[in-house]
Amino acid sequence: MTDEDVAPEQGELAITRTGDRLRLAREAAGLSLADVATRTRITQRHLSAIEKSDFSELPGRTYVTGFARAYARAVDLPEAEVGAAVRRELEEDAYGARPLYEAYEPTDPARLPTARMTWTLVIVALLLASAYGVWRFLSVEPGEALVAAQNRAAEESEAPQSDVVALPANKAGTAPSAVAANAPVVLTGISEVWIGFDDAAGKTENWRTLDPGETYQVPPEYIQQFTLRTSIPQALKVTVGGRDVGAIGPADTLVKGVSLKPADLLARTEGNSAPGAAAPATRALPKG
Q: Could you give the percent of the chain with pLDDT greater than 90?
C-alpha cells in the first residue's frame, strides 16, 4: 500500500483547489482576510470567493486571474504558478462560457444618484419652472396682459362696421362726421408724460409713463371700464381712429375722469360734451 492510498487523518484537509492553497498560506502567515485585503486592495468578498474557488462571484476571467496572483504575492506564494492553476480551474469549470466583462470598472456607489436624489432634482426643476411662470406673469407690462384683446379689437376694426356714433352738430351748425363706435383710441407722448386709468370708484388700477413719441393703444376693456387721468395734459396727444381730439385739460393741471369712449372724446373737437358724458375733473398743480 502506497502513501497515496492512505486517506488523510481526521481533521486534516486535502488540498485540491488553488483557493485552499491560498487560504492555508494565509493562515500559516497569521493573516486575516482583512489583512490581505489591505495589502492587495481587493475586497474581502472577492478574496473569500477566491478561497472557495467560487469564481462566479467575480467580475470576469481576467480579474479572477489577477486577483489570485495578487493574493499569492500577499502570502508569499509563486504568483505565476497560482495564476496558471486558476486558469486551469476556470477551463475545467467551463467558466469561459460566461460573458466576459473586460471593460469592467468598479463604480463608487457614492457617485451614483439615488432614487431620492433623482426625485428631488425633478421636484426642484418643477418648482423653478413654476417660479419663472409666476415671475413672468407679475413682471409683464400692463398692456402685454391684454395683447389677445387688442388683437381681437384690431381684427374687428378691419371688418365692415355697422355701428356708428353720430356726433352732435358743431357751433356753426355743420353736420358732424360719423365715427365707428369701436374706433381705436391711441395715446401718444409729446414729451414724457404720466398716465393712469381709474375705475368707477376713482381708484387707479393701472398706470404707466409714455416717453416722447411712444404710443399706447387703449384696450377695449379699458375704454368701457376706466377713465383717464394725467398731470401734464399738454404732453399727451389723444386720437380716435387717427383723429386728434385736442387738449384734454389745461396745462400743468391734474385731469381725471376723462372718458375714453370714442364718442365722448370726439365730442371735444366740436366744443361740446357728448350726451351723458361727464366733464373731467381738474385740479391745478402747485407751482415750483
A: 29
